[in-house]
Design brief:
The structure holds 2 protein chains of 2 kinds.
Chain A (H helix, E strand, L loop, with lengths): L1 E5 L2 H8 L4 E7 L2 H4 L5 H17 L5 E7 L5 H4 L11 E4 L3 H10 L4 E4 L1 E11 L2 E6 L15 H4 L26 H11 L34
Chain B lengths: L7 H7 L4 E6 L8 H10 L5 E4 L11 H10 L4 E6 L5 H13 L4 E5 L20 H14 L15 E6 L7 H14 L3 E6 L3 H13 L7 E6 L5 H10 L7 H8 L6 H17 L4 E6 L8 H7 L11
Parallel strand pairs in B: 1-2, 1-8, 2-3, 3-4, 4-5, 5-6, 6-7, 7-8
Helix pairs in contact in B: 4-5, 6-7, 8-9, 10-11
Chain lengths: ~220, ~300
């Protein structure tokens, strides 16, 4: 899932300090799972902002809500009858949801309430780590189910580099070397022969290098 | 086996002599005299001179410009290229540029992560990795072709090298496998990471020889003399992929401060003498970091001076 972290309170206050009517809009999708932007976080943020305005002697209205998914138009449209009353919206969805909100309500100021970080897993509550960079052409079948693009700091297709130390990446002792993981997994699977075959340069056109991406599935279109 | 190129380094190896290479680091300014000075210090003592490519991700004069300077001085440069900062368009462009100047040696590296350098907030590239750069250089040389498919007549005639690090543990076998992968990609020589852990290096070389890899790639053993115990400790604790056993630190630290530099040179000489006897070693890569003036002394003490003359 998409992983995000809440933005620092000071940054959000800096965005909204001149507003009189604010809506804090959470999202029930990914950001709820990583506890950065669901209904619970929307309520916490709205309370904190009300406190901020009250302490500053300001009478500002701060409401909160959460939508099923901000990346889908039909859920965003649920705000259509009341969004006009607000000066601005703080969206706690990921960067996708924030932009979609701004697209649908193109005259409304939409501020980001989270920093969207990566596609990752929950290692445990409060600990998330990256697994996929959405390069658009999956090679996990060749690499023992461990992605070198997401998990090698140099996105090497023929790692590990000479900087790994005791199975850890040169950038940090807390980061496992992705290629050590691949090597061990291939060994477990009895596929070590794959390791010594060079992988040729990758076609990055399906990644961000190809420009903004779009999927059109004719088989699904109505 | 290996494609013949005009490289003097390749000729020295093929003639059966221990080959010697060293390296010079470009300056962090536009001062062209620095490389000229460093090149002159070691010119008569080594067969080829590596020019590092923004090593440890610190921005410096580019490797290609310095290689051209060395070439015009009549020296034999080895163009180090990392894939961190340039995509395949720029890398191939530089290889063509090097070829146009008659630079005949390339060292293909992935490069340190930029977080170690002076621009840690930079974006990195890593369009290719070291092994793909080897493949690319080989295709340009042997097929006269770019990755994009364009075919051309005048080819860069590169003796293709890479690095090998037996010490980036814990698994020495993995490191031998990776060397085999570089061989499969077309590498012709490798320069190893600085050797301090002799036991691990011997284990690595035995596995290399058992697989016959030493007959497919010329292995130059990497030697870096320690200036003092502080450097030994720094390399032990701080440099990625470096394995400095405690006894090395103790040996350098066990002599008075004013004698530590001499002891560092003694250690380097002892290491080379020991490695000379190992099967599969074709020469030495002496990396005297900001201490190039000591290379002549080391080369003389290991009995490899003067350098053999090659027939043209």
């Amino acid at each position: 899932m998409i992983k995000a972290i809440p933005k620092p309170m000071e940054e959000i206050i800096d965005y909204v300090k001149d507003c009189n009517k604010l809506l804090i809009a959470g999202c029930d999708g990914c950001v709820t799972v990583c506890e950065a932007g669901g209904l619970k976080e929307a309520k916490i943020l709205s309370s904190a902002l009300r406190l901020y305005f009250t302490q500053g002697g300001r009478q500002a209205q701060v409401d909160d809500t959460s939508l099923t998914r901000q990346c889908e138009k039909e859920y965003l449209l649920q705000l259509s009858d009341r969004i006009d009353q607000y000066d601005a919206v703080v969206s706690l969805a990921c960067g996708v949801g924030i932009q979609h909100m701004a697209e649908i309500y193109d005259k409304k100021i939409v501020f980001p309430g989270v920093d969207t970080c990566f596609l990752g897993v929950n290692e445990e509550r409060g600990v998330y780590s990256e697994r996929c960079q959405a390069c658009g052409r999956c090679i996990l079948a060749e690499t023992g189910g461990v992605c070198p693009i997401a998990r090698c700091s140099k996105r090497m297709l023929n790692g590990p580099c000479g900087g790994s130390d005791k199975g850890k990446c040169e950038i940090s002792k807390d980061v496992p070397c992705g290629w050590e993981l691949i090597y061990e997994r291939l060994k477990t699977l009895g596929q070590l022969d794959r390791f010594e075959t060079p992988t040729s340069p990758k076609d990055w056109t399906t990644s961000r290098d190809g420009g903004p991406r779009k999927i059109v599935r004719e088989d699904l279109r109505i | 086996m290996s494609v013949e190129t005009p490289s003097k380094l390749q000729k020295m190896i093929n003639a059966g002599h221990f080959a010697l290479t060293s390296e010079v680091g470009p300056p962090r300014s536009a001062d062209g005299a620095v490389i000229e000075h460093k090149g002159k210090l070691i010119a008569d003592y080594v067969d080829a001179i590596n020019v590092t490519d923004n090593q440890t991700s610190v921005c410096r004069v580019c490797s290609l410009a310095c290689c051209i300077r060395l070439k015009t001085m009549g020296l034999e440069p080895v163009l180090q290229m990392v894939t961190r900062d340039r995509n395949r368009i720029a890398l191939q462009s530089d290889i063509l540029g090097a070829g146009s100047w008659g630079i005949n040696n390339i060292l293909c590296l992935t490069g340190d992560h930029q977080q170690f350098g002076d621009h840690s907030s930079a974006a990195n590239v890593f369009d290719l990795d070291s092994i793909q750069l080897i493949q690319t250089a080989r295709m340009m040389r042997d097929e006269g072709k770019l990755l994009g498919g364009h075919e051309f007549d005048v080819r860069p005639r590169m003796f293709i090298g890479a690095a090998a690090n037996p010490f980036a543990g814990p698994n020495v076998g993995l490191r031998v496998s990776r060397l085999a992968k570089k061989v499969a990609a077309g590498v012709q020589f490798v320069q190893t990471q600085c050797i301090y852990n002799m036991d691990t290096f011997k284990t690595f070389m035995k596995m290399v020889v058992d697989r016959g890899l030493h007959e497919k790639v010329a292995i130059l053993a990497g030697i870096t003399p320690m200036k003092n115990v502080g450097m030994a400790r720094y390399m032990q604790k701080r440099v990625p992929g470096m394995d400095v056993p405690e006894e090395i630190v103790k040996r350098i630290g066990g002599v008075p401060k004013e004698k530590q530099a001499d002891e560092g040179i003694n250690l380097a000489v002892d290491q080379i003498e020991e490695i000379k006897g190992l099967e599969g070693i074709k020469g030495f890569h002496i990396m005297a970091i900001e201490w190039e003036e000591k290379v002549p002394e080391i080369v003389e003490r290991i009995g490899l001076y003067p350098r053999p003359k090659l027939a043209d």
